[in-house]
Amino acid sequence: MKDLFRRKLLLGAVAAEVALCATGTRAFAQEESWQLEEIVVTAQKRAQSLYEVPATISAMSEAQITALGINNTIDLAQSTPGLTFGRTAAWTNFYMRGLGNAFNTPAAQSPVAVYVDGVYQADSAAMALALYGVERVEILKGPQGTLYGRNAVGGAINVITKAPSSDFEAKVRASMGNLGNQQYSGYVNGGSEVVQANLALDSHTRDGYNKNITPGKDDMDDIDDFAVRGKLRYTPNEVVDLTLAVDYSLQRGDGPGTVDLPYEPLPQAYLGSVLPTGQLLGGTMPSDRKWRTSVDADLAGRARDQGISLTGRFDFESFELLSITAGRDFENDHGIDFDSSSASVISWRAEDFHRQYSQEFQVLSTAEDRFSWIAGLYYLNDDAGFDPFVLSMSADVAPAAVYIQQNTKVRTDAYAAFAEGTYDITDEISVVLGGRYSVDDLEHYDARQTVTLAAAPIVLFETDSSGANESFDSFTPRVSLNYQRPEGLYYVTLSKGYASGLYNISNVAATRELDEPIDPEDVEAIEIGAKWRFLDDRVNLNVAGFYYDVKDLQTMQLAGSGLTTFENADGEIQGLDADVLWAVTPEFTLRAAFEILDASYSSYENATVYEPNLQQGNFAVAPCGLPFGQASANDAACVTVADLTDEDMMRSPELTSTVGFDWILPLRAESGSLTLTANWYHSDEYLTSVNGSIVSPEYDSYNASLSWLSPDEHWNLALWGKNLSDADYFLTSGDSNYGRQIMRAEPQTYGVTVEYSFGK
Predict the structure, then answer these.
(1) From CA 394, how far away is CA 402, in angstroms rounded?
(2) CA–CA separation, 484 vs 52, rounded Å?
(3) Other C-beta atoms lying within 10 Å of the C-beta of residue 320
(4) Which of 15-24, 310-319, 354-363 is predicted least confidently?
(5) CB crowding 12-40: b at 16 or more within 10 Å, else e
(6) Which SS3 state, helix, strand or coil, does residue 638 take?
(7) Which is nearest to 508 in space by CA: 459, 545, 457, 559?
(8) What is the H or E stretch that residue 235 is in?
(9) How far is CA 351 from CA 300, 332, 407, 508, 561, in A?
(10) Half-sphere exposure (Cβ direction) of 45: Cα atoms closer than 13 Å
């Protein structure tokens, strides 16, 4: 694999050099005046040109989001090399440059942080955000420990919604497509010079794309979502700018729809000694199991998320004071069928919650001089847990049918102080120096487990380990040396990221003394990059190479009976990012990007893994060669340990790439304008389980839209298609003693969208 990585790295470098030479040559041959629009981002907490920020950033405007068919943060992965998305039950799992986690508890936060208007979204189940009423989205790659803080070791996704203004603007949009797709949205904005407000809403329904062959059961992975966001802005003078924002969303649906895959040595073995395979799979499971499932448990889900924030900006003569006060309340009720079958073998139902309050103060310099700076304080109170989750096990996999109920919660108080400054040594050379000190106080409370005999309300035993607590702290610095030339920016950046230690609330320890969290994750990173602009600002080319040393990488694996184990490992990551944007003509813009990645465990000696039980159903032989009692003869696989050192890390494809274009087709002025947008996304295969036994296949996905804008710019009509190649790849997968479970991504979808804009 290392040799293959080096070959791809060399290929990428050659491609970048060819692009550089080609654009440099054409710069002398063209005199036309069109240019690419300036892209302004706030990745460093202040408005800057994208091409002056020493970091790898992908930025998408509202128009690009609409043209690419991006409905939510999940869809961002199909247009951003290096960003992959997975889903474990109701929890969203983002991976960026190989860093992420597949944790399935509300108290385990994502290493890729998501912010909306500067407010951190702590619950990973709430990170699948609908992108409506959005001004732009910024995707920041690499550790963001100094300015974005804890749990941004992989990077950050920064969603900036539209700010209210005095100009009247309103639009309504309706979409319809296959799989029963219906989406309706609206936006209105306006006000006076002193008071302005806007309101955005979105409703989206879609039938399930995983057909459930269990008689009488609904298809899985449908959508029934509603979301609304409103902002009220008060600007009494040039100093004060206050914005009150509220949002509410409700997500409902049946899912996830997983399918069990038998281990290769046992094509018919799945609890074979208990039930005939045909009955277990509903009797009609086809050999091609794409977008098919067979589950009997109640998997109807309902997630409610609501939040409020008050953002105050106070603009003084040489600095700006920013205050962000925010609170969120999230509740989620959902289920999982662990055996992925029409038999009632094992399933669980969870009611989890997440409540957070945060306060951030920032002071930013605004004076025009060689030294610019930012400093701030941050506080987060975070309360999350299961209340409860109930695991139901039949007598086929336990001595008797039992219910295991767990009420377990974690309270976190997180504090941080940070500062960063940029000093222009000369007109061309500048240095950035910053750091953040973080403290996290965790308390694992109300940690109770009750095991009840299902046949009668008899409590077999109870466990209570409430009261465990732990504190973590970290200093995350950033140093960057920048060289600004007329043709572009050259930079080298050293940075560190930190993810707080975690309690595993899927398991309850026997005593408080045994309830130990896993260690914090630390990433030390170096990135060397360049951002060039050619052809009179008609071509933008960005290239960056990076290397990460990862200590105590946080991983999760199923530990049997639907419970989990959290573990630490060390890792090493290196790669190359490149992207180009070229305005070939005033009507035709070409874009391309790729990431080459090599991510492996440098130390992972005692990893929890699953080994196929080749003696399934044979009660005379110890399963997997393990001692009797450590595994069941009925199990499809046995939990054991293995050394995964030098093995590939999860969700780390060696190559991801995208190529696309926007083409305004020639029409008469009185006929309006016609725009064709297309995007091709490629991903190499990648592992979707910690132990490397399940691999999502290599795939190519195509999105396209053809839109017509009326001459008065009131009407916009678009035909669109997503995943037109019907690519088959995995959102999540996992090994357990009940078999392998895989959840596939959405298949081909297509439809039509009509939008009408008022006030133009």
Answers:
(1) 7
(2) 8
(3) 17
(4) 15-24
(5) beeebeebbeebeeeeeeeeeeeebeebe
(6) strand
(7) 559
(8) none
(9) 12, 6, 10, 17, 18
(10) 30
What mean pLDDT is predicted for residues 479-493? 95
Residue 436 has pLDDT above 50, yes or no: yes
Question: Measuring CA to CA, which residue among 373, 548, 383, 417 is closest to residue 149?
Answer: 417
Task: Show the 3-state SS of 236-281.
Answer: CCCCEEEEEEEEEEEEEEECCCCEEECCCCCCCCCCCCCCCHHHHC
Average pLDDT over residues 259-282: 42
What's the rounded Cα separation, in Å, for the pair 674 and 226? 31
Q: Which has more confidence, 634 or 640? A: 640
For residues 555 and 313, the model is more confident at 313
Residue pair 99/153 in contact by the 8 Å Cβ criterion: yes
The residue written with tokens 């133009």 in the block is 760
**How many C-beta neighbours within 10 Å does residue 63 have?**
12
Cα distance between residue 700 and residue 671, in whole Å:
35
Show Cβ contacts of residue 487 under 8 Å, excluding neighbours closer than 6 positions: 532, 533, 534
> Which residue bears the tokens 């509202």?
62
Residue type, 294: S
For the segment 624-632, the average pLDDT, to the nearest whole number, is 76
- DSSP per-residue letters across 401-451: -EEEEEEEEEEEEEEEEEEEEEEESSSSEEEEEEEEEEEEEEEEEEEEEEE
C-alpha distances (whole Å) from 209 to each of 92, 301, 381 are 19, 16, 38
**Residue 196, beta-bridge partner list:** 191, 233
Contacts of 586 (CB under 8 A, 6+ apart): 32, 34, 664
* Backbone dihedral region for residue 107 (phi beyond 0: left; psi -120 to 50: alpha; all else: beta): alpha
Mean pLDDT of the chain: 85
488-499 and 673-683: which strand pairing? unpaired
pLDDT over 70 at 721, yes or no: yes
Residues ≥6 apart with Cβ < 8 Å to 288: none
CB hemisphere CA count around 106 (13 angstroms): 29
Q: Half-sphere exposure of 112 toward its Cβ, with a 13 Å CA cutoff?
A: 30
Counts for the chain of helices (H) and strands (E), in that order: 3, 41
User: What is the SS3 assignment for 155?
Assistant: strand
Q: Are 141 and 97 in contact (CB under 8 A)?
A: yes
CA–CA gap between residue 549 and residue 441 (Å, rounded): 26
Query: Going by C-beta distance under 8 Å and a sequence separation of 6 or more, which residues neighbour residue 610?
Result: 558, 637, 638, 639, 640, 691, 693, 735, 736, 737
Tokens matching residue 649: 């890390």
Q: What is the pLDDT of residues 310-319, one digit of tens each?
A: 999 999 989 9
518 to each of 154, 632, 649, 746, how far by Cα in Å?
18, 28, 18, 34
Residue labelled with tokens 């003394």: 513
Q: Which residues contact 380 (CB under 8 A, 6 or more apart)?
A: 120, 122, 356, 357, 358, 412, 413, 414
Rg of the chain on CA atoms, in Å: 26
The pairing of beta strand 40-41 with beta strand 637-642: unpaired
- pLDDT score of 398 more than 80: no
Task: Express each pLDDT in 675-700 by its tens digit.
Answer: 999 999 999 999 887 776 788 899 99
**C-alpha span between 613 and 373 (Å, rounded):** 60
Q: What domains, with CATH codes, occur in the chain?
A: 2-758 (2.40.170.20)
Q: What is the DSSP letter of 71?
A: -
- Give the confidence band of 631 by pLDDT, cuts at 50, 70, 90: confident
Distances (CA, A) of 611 to 608, 620, 690: 10, 19, 13
